[in-house]
Design goal:
Elements: H1 2-10, H2 17-40, H3 45-67, H4 73-76, H5 79-95, H6 104-130, H7 135-156, H8 162-165, H9 170-183, H10 189-213
Helix pairs in contact: 2-3, 2-5, 2-6, 3-5, 3-7, 6-7, 6-9, 6-10, 7-9, 9-10
Pfam families: Gly_transporter
Protein name: Trimeric intracellular cation channel family protein
Domain Glycine transporter: 21-94, 111-183
Length: 217
């Protein structure tokens, strides 16, 4: 039994320091977006923390399950849950005091979501590459990691997920992931990551800016 357990643990990709730091940042960002959504939907504090955890850890959980990396990352390292819970609670308590109906919480949510999408896409690709999958599958797993948290957040709030309402959402993740894979080699990995991140965030911000300028339909 010990030999089987050791073999199972050996198959689990160990997150490098860079990937771990990116994951913590991405977890905090998506937890904050979920807490804002919780405040908009009238959740209580417990519901906000649960939503923050589901949204910020959901994408990586699905990724790890697809890679056969169990226990999943947040069960092996409490840092991520310990990040999601207090960030979710703190942002919820702040957002709950912001006057509703002004659109401020929604705008902040969408901008945080854009940052989370880009960060988790890059994290997903990094973990997938550590697991030894092909470049195409690494990009696909990056997209799954990037969009799943937002899907869970919206579904748990009874709203259509952004990925089903926005033409440039999953496609931004896929394009950004492909750009990173193309640049990684010609450029140092950190430079490729920063450039791909900037492109994804700029694309989503541009979509949000154009939506704000459009007259109500």
């Amino acid at each position: 039994m010990e030999g089987i357990a050791a073999e199972g643990w050996a198959l689990i990709p160990v997150l490098s320091l860079t990937v771990s730091v990116l994951t913590v940042i991405a977890t905090a960002v998506l937890a904050a977006s979920a807490a804002l959504q919780a405040a908009r939907c009238g959740f209580d504090a417990f519901g906000a923390v649960a939503l923050a955890a589901a949204a910020s850890l959901g994408g990586g959980t699905v990724r790890d399950l697809l890679l056969g990396a169990t226990p999943v990352f947040w069960l092996r390292d409490i840092t991520y849950l310990a990040t999601a819970a207090p960030v979710g609670l703190g942002v919820f308590l702040f957002a709950d005091r912001v006057e509703g109906g002004t659109g401020k919480r929604l705008r902040l949510l969408l901008y945080l979501d854009a940052l989370g999408l880009a960060l988790f896409t890059l994290v997903g690709i990094a973990v997938a590459r550590q697991a030894g999958v092909s470049e195409v599958m690494a990009v696909a797993l990056g997209c799954i990691t990037g969009v799943t948290g937002g899907i869970l957040r919206d579904l748990l709030c009874g709203q259509p997920p952004l990925v089903l309402r926005e033409d440039l959402y999953a496609s931004v993740s896929l394009a950004g992931g492909a750009l990173f894979m193309a640049l990684d080699g010609p450029l140092p990995a950190p430079a490729a990551e920063m450039l791909a991140f900037a492109v994804m965030v700029a694309a989503r911000f541009l979509v949000l800016w154009r939506q704000r300028r459009q007259p109500p339909g």
